[in-house]
Amino acid sequence: KAGVTQTPRYLIKTRGQQVTLSCSPISGHRSVSWYQQTPGQGLQFLFEYFSETQRNKGNFPGRFSGRQFSNSRSEMNVSTLELGDSALYLCASSDTTRMGDTQYFGPGTRLTVL
Amino acid sequence: AQSVSQHNHHVILSEAASLELGCNYSYGGTVNLFWYVQYPGQHLQLLLKYFSGDPLVKGIKGFEAEFIKSKFSFNLRKPSVQWSDTAEYFCAVNALRDDKIIFGKGTRLHILP
Fold it and tell me: Cα separation of A77 and A86, whole Å?
């Protein structure tokens, strides 16, 4: 099976802009989670979608949003970008109904906000 | 609030040395525990996990971890490291009641050849 794919791999934006990141899970996986990875904070959970519904949400402002489509592909949107949003955004998929099972990570999207 | 602490941010060892990376969590209920590894230039991947049963779990590449419930710890061990173990290691805890996964901030392991 193909792994988790994320597009684009690299992105440069300026403050105030918005950005949309895409994630395609492993075929058959219905759970998709998003994480923000920074050197200072490590991996922080953003949200998780299962069967097009947001099941869990981390402690991020409302500027961060997401959605999942019927084919399990997911998008993450960040509006009104701030410098502090510069990070590696990771997507992970899982084939179980519980979030606590093994997650398979994609390569990430490196977002730089200038 | 739940938290996961990895005591060592950066560890440097010589090949054949023994390794132990600490992980402690703060949550009183039932948990699932994970160690993930990120090799240079590669995706984050699962090293091992504990859900229930034998508290000593074995993972890939000779790694093992021991869950000590009374100490809220899940330390990662390897008796003899190799240069190829150079990577960043993340401990993660899933608190079943909340069904969220919290990651530690990671430990960068550098093995000298």
Answer: 14
d(CA A51, CA A74): 10
Tens of pLDDT, residue by residue over B35-74, are 999 999 899 999 999 998 999 999 999 999 999 999 999 9
CB contact under 8 A, A42 and B44: no
Put simply, the answer to whether A105 touches B45 (Cβ < 8 Å) is yes
Q: To the nearest whole angstrom, how far is the Cα of B113 from the nearest Cα of chain A?
A: 26
Residue type at position A46: L
Mean pLDDT calculated for residue range B79-92? 96
**Tokens, residue B90:** 């993340």
- Mean pLDDT, residues B20-28 taken together: 93
Report whether A6 contacts A107 (CB < 8 A). Answer: yes
**Are B26 and B3 a contacting pair, CB within 8 Å?**
yes
* The token pair that represents A68 in the structure block: 């999942």
Contact A103, A1 (CB under 8 A): no
Predicted pLDDT of residue A7: 97
Cβ neighbours of A58 in B, within 8 Å: 100
